[in-house]
Amino acid sequence: MTFSGKVALQGVSGRSPSDRAEGTRGIAAGARVMTLDGEIAVEHLVAGDRIVTRDGMRRLVAVRSSSYSGPAMRLAAGALGHDRPQTGIVLPAETRVHLRDWRAKAMFGAPTADAAVRRLFDGEFVTETRVTDLRVFTLTFDVAQVIYVEGLEIACEAEAVDAEAWLARTAAPRHRAHG
After folding, report:
1. What is the rounded CA–CA span in Å between residue 135 and residue 137?
2. How many CB atoms lie within 10 A of CB 39?
3. Bridge-based pairing state of the strands 62-75 and 89-92
4. 146 touches 98 (CB < 8 A)
5. What is the per-residue pLDDT for 157?
6. What is the rounded CA–CA span in Å between residue 148 and residue 53?
7. Which of these, 68, 52, 64, 71, lies nearest to 117 by C-alpha position?
8. Which helix (H) or strand (E) holds 163?
9. Phi, psi of 148, rounded to the nearest 5 degrees
10. Please, how many CA atoms are within 13 Å of residue 130, restricted to the half-sphere of its CB?
11. CA-to-CA distance for 95 and 38, rounded, in angstroms?
């Protein structure tokens, strides 16, 4: 969703959100996202929640959910290093994972890089699968961010924001139970 009167910012991938098919990236329901309140299942997050990112705490601008059917990647626990991910996880194949280890250097010649999870296929710890009606959530921030999902670093795109309207929606502290 782009707010009226503003231009959508480009995301981590260098493409605006409208340049990609909806539902091809995201976080599957049940996956836990690191927040200032601890790890919370992605389906319980709402705009304004405080998320732990590589840049520190950031507030969510938007949370969208969709049903996704198509290619996906299954990552075994520890596939990308100790507790990365903490448990097995399935992600749509185009979900961007932030790399900052030997993979970034080997694949992109850089110390860090964002890559579609499909690029990490190894046939043993990162395998291909197909999903049908996977509930997927897309988290959006005011600037591109890298968040922690089950120990993985996942790249999230940015969205232009009407600052006054966003502050009005998110300024009041909320207290709620997370399951």
Report:
1. 7
2. 16
3. antiparallel
4. yes
5. 87
6. 7
7. 71
8. helix 163-170
9. -110, 120
10. 3
11. 23
159 in Cβ contact with 1 (< 8 Å): yes
Whole-angstrom Cα distance, residue 32 to residue 69? 21
Rounding to the nearest 10 degrees, give the CA dihedral for residues 125, 126, 131, 135.
100
* One-letter amino acid of 1: M
Q: Which two tokens stand for residue 172?
A: 């009041």
DSSP β-bridge partners for residue 33: 40, 149
Instruction: Work out the angle at residue 63's Cα, subtended by the Cα atoms of residues 57 and 68, and round it to the nearest 5 degrees.
Output: 130
Q: How does pLDDT run across 45-97, given as a tens digit for each residue?
A: 999 999 999 999 999 999 999 999 999 999 999 999 888 999 999 999 999 99
At a CB cut-off of 8 Å and minimum separation 6, what does 50 contact?
Answer: 35, 36, 37, 57, 58, 59
Residue 136 tokens read as 């997927």
Q: Which two tokens stand for residue 84?
A: 């990365």
pTM score of the predicted model: 0.77
Dist CA 99 CA 111 (whole Å): 8
Q: Residue 119's pLDDT is what?
A: 95
